[in-house]
Design brief:
five-stranded parallel β-sheet, binds beta-D-glucopyranose, six-stranded mixed β-sheet, Rossmann fold, 23 helices, Immunoglobulin-like, alpha/beta, globular, single chain
């Protein structure tokens, strides 16, 4: 490894030899769709990085042009969206977050990079850590859910996993935290929509996960499409200079989202592309992704004296520095002959199966219908997910091949106990207007048990795929009714990219599993859970609304002056409270919820003290006992509430969690330490403060249940 002074000298001496056009070329990212002559532009040093390149042969071809035919031979960065796997596809990030297992996520990130780096990726636009509380927004599938604490844990895990991978030649890739900032708060859940939020909410709830990635050493940051309080994020000096550079000390490079600089014109924030380029460079955006603003206008802006060349130099040094750090100057090419053996290895597929099984949430299990017995069964697999392949992969399957995915029907064939029979009946399509009631009824009537495989097509979630209706698409609600009418025990299998409004489904089934879109091994993972080979332990990271009108529904809301469950003297009657006339305030399933085939009892909550000083720590612990008949794992969650503060606080805030595995009858003590940072909040100047006063604390299985204790913060 070359030392830092060596790196600085290397990059500076390269910069000294660059023309202005070559410098600006480094600030341009494009792919083969470019309207200008692509190869000629690479040869002229007019492009510094490429986007969405899957073919290793092509990558080497373009890299050769850059390295061997351009004047200075500067290698290209190859940026790809390796969001939940490269060729081996893992569950969508929303599902992975539900494992609450940062080690597993780190391992998946590393494994994804093993495949991606072998195929030429040197930069991945992961992790996406936008707090997502609106299931209408299709990109909730890519996120870690609604909570700042959990998203911050995931942000660190993804960043560490991606950036710790190195192949035998030292080749590696940079991570890119996105979409900075607050993209997940898009008004009315419509993608790309405006965000208007207080600085307090931004700093307390939305910024922490990006910051966590920065603290974990993420090398790059992507700006978001949305405007924030009137200023588009891609030209937002508050976000890019004040917060990111000055407050967080970020030294890496900043890239726009896809043509987000050009979109400043559509925002009505810039008159034309040239002004868009000016505003973005002055705000601090180093690379124009897939746009024409920098390539067409940056040079003129420098010549006209509107952009100091020093600003361009600083951006270029960051870009060259990243290429240096990634070892691209020493190893620009990939070994095409090694690619094949790197992809879809048995070890990667095993990891995909483990991840898929561990991200399945058990939402209901009446009468312990699950796990299924290992005796011959007559099973009807009914529903449009029965024979789906693509929709098991999920919305950002990058280089996954649908023919490498086993369907649920295929997996059941070799997982059902010997002597079983399997009837397969899709019944309707995932989103169409077709429904074969007779076939559904016939299939159900022949079976002892129905597996109801329903959900969303993968294309209903992800970018630009928002929904105003959150029920089961197409005629699936009728299918559910028809199956329920059969009177047979029904196990629902809900494959989805977002929380859905499914109270009727929940009432219609005896058991319900949520496998989301689980990747290559989703079908086998469902079988693992159905037959108890894996005992489910995942917990929801987003609340499930009962109906669209509740959205956004999230656990860490404020109390309001008229909460429905208020204590003490109240001057208003039952009616005039913060609630709905026609629906409860409670979600269908709360954040943190998930069952197990084991049964866990929480007892004996203990606080190390009834009072804590502002600079002190407090230990909170509880006993957890597995009172069930099988071994299982439980994710115990710690929440706090500050009862009265200078600024109103959420009714609950997650501050920690632990996963424990217990044999039947076994107990353990789970202990958490609350630090001053956990007890602090931001004062009126947004500085951390700890106020004396009364606090509550809970340890429990989800955000609604748990054992409660109280303590005081004393001066
Ligand atoms: C998305 C980003 C993605 C980029 C590059 C954009 O449309 O918003 O998440 O990284 O495209 O593919």
């Amino acid at each position: 490894m070359k030392s830092n002074p060596e790196k600085n000298n290397y990059c500076q001496s390269l910069l000294d030899r660059m023309t202005l056009e070559e410098k600006i070329g480094q600030m341009v990212q494009f792919n083969e769709n470019w309207k200008l002559d692509f190869e000629k532009t690479i040869r002229a040093g007019g492009v510094g990085s490429l986007l969405t390149m899957r073919d290793p042969h092509n990558i080497n071809k373009f890299q050769r042009i850059a390295v061997e035919e351009s004047r200075l031979g500067i290698p290209l960065l190859i940026g790809n969206d390796v969001i939940h796997g490269y060729r081996t596809t893992f569950p969508i990030p929303l599902a992975l977050a539900g494992t609450w297992d940062t080690q597993l996520v780190e391992e998946i990130a590393r494994e994804s990079m093993r495949e991606a780096v072998a195929c030429g990726t040197t930069w991945t636009f992961t992790p996406m850590v936008d707090i997502s509380r609106d299931p209408r927004w299709g990109r909730i599938a890519e996120s870690g859910g609604e909570d700042p604490y959990l998203n911050s844990q995931m942000a660190r895990a993804w960043t560490r996993g991606i950036q710790s991978y190195h192949d035998a030649n030292g080749r590696c890739a940079a991570a890119c935290v996105k979409h900075y900032a607050a993209y997940g708060a898009a008004e009315s859940g419509k993608d790309y929509n405006s965000v208007d939020m207080s600085e307090r909410r931004l700093r307390e709830e939305y910024l922490p996960p990006y910051r966590a990635a920065v603290e974990a050493g993420v090398k790059t940051v992507m700006t978001s499409f949305n405007d924030l309080n009137g200023t588009p994020a891609t030209a937002n000096k508050f976000l890019l200079q004040q917060v990111l550079r000055r407050e967080w000390g970020f030294e890496g490079l900043v890239i726009s989202d896809f043509d987000a600089i050009g979109e400043l014109v559509h925002h009505g924030f810039a008159r034309d592309l040239k002004e868009a380029a000016l505003r973005s460079i002055l705000a601090g955006v180093d690379i124009d992704m897939m746009g024409y603003a920098y390539p067409l206008h940056l040079a003129d802006l420098v010549h006209e004296g509107k952009v100091p060349e020093a600003l361009i130099d600083a951006s270029v040094l960051r870009i060259l520095g990243l290429k240096y750090d990634l070892g691209l100057f020493d190893h620009p090419y990939i070994d095409e002959s090694a690619v094949h053996d790197t992809l879809l290895t048995p070890a990667a597929l095993d990891l995909a199966e483990k991840a898929a099984a561990e991200s399945i949430v058990l939402l209901k299990n009446e009468g312990d219908l699950l796990p299924l017995p290992h005796t011959p069964l007559k099973v009807a697999l009914i529903g449009p997910m029965a024979e789906e392949r693509a929709s098991l992969l999920g919305c950002w399957y990058f280089n996954g091949h649908t023919d490498e995915v086993e369907t649920l029907a295929e997996a059941l064939e070799h997982n059902l106990p010997a002597g079983s029979t399997l009837i397969v009946e899709p019944g309707c399509s995932l989103g169409g207007n077709d429904l074969d009631l007779a076939a559904i009824t016939a299939a159900a009537s022949q079976a002892d048990l129905v597996l109801l495989a329903i959900g969303e097509h993968f294309s209903l979630s992800g970018e630009a795929h928002s929904r105003a209706h959150l029920d089961l698409p197409g005629r699936q609600p009728e299918l559910v009714r028809a199956v329920a009418a059969s009177g047979k025990p029904v196990v629902g299998l809900l494959f989805t990219g977002r929380p859905l409004t499914i109270p009727e489904l929940v009432d219609s089934v005896s058991a319900l599993l949520l496998p989301y879109h689980g990747g290559n091994r989703a079908a086998q993972a469902v079988c693992d859970v159905l037959f108890g080979v894996v005992n489910p332990a995942a917990k929801l990271t987003t609340s499930f609304p009962r109906c669209e009108g509740q959205v956004p529904v999230y656990y860490a809301h404020k109390s309001t002056g008229r909460p429905i469950d208020s204590e003490g003297i109240i001057q208003f009657d039952e009616v005039n409270r913060s609630n709905y006339l026609d629906e409860t305030n409670d979600p269908l399933f709360p954040f943190g919820f998930g069952l197990s085939y084991a049964k866990f009892e929480y007892s004996d909550l203990n606080l190390s003290s009834a009072a804590v000083k502002p600079d002190g720590t407090l230990t909170v612990s509880t006993q957890i006992t597995n009172t069930g008949k099988v071994a299982g794992s439980e994710i115990a969650q710690l929440y706090i509430r500050d009862l009265a503060a200078l600024v109103t606080r959420p009714v609950k805030q997650l501050k920690g969690y632990r996963k424990v595995t217990l044999q039947p009858g076994e107990s353990c003590r789970v202990e958490f330490t609350l630090s001053p940072a956990d007890l602090s909040f931001l004062d009126e100047e947004f500085q951390p403060i700890i106020e004396p006063g009364s606090m509550r604390v809970w340890i429990g299985p989800n955000s609604q249940e748990g054992l409660m204790g109280s303590f005081e913060i004393v001066a």
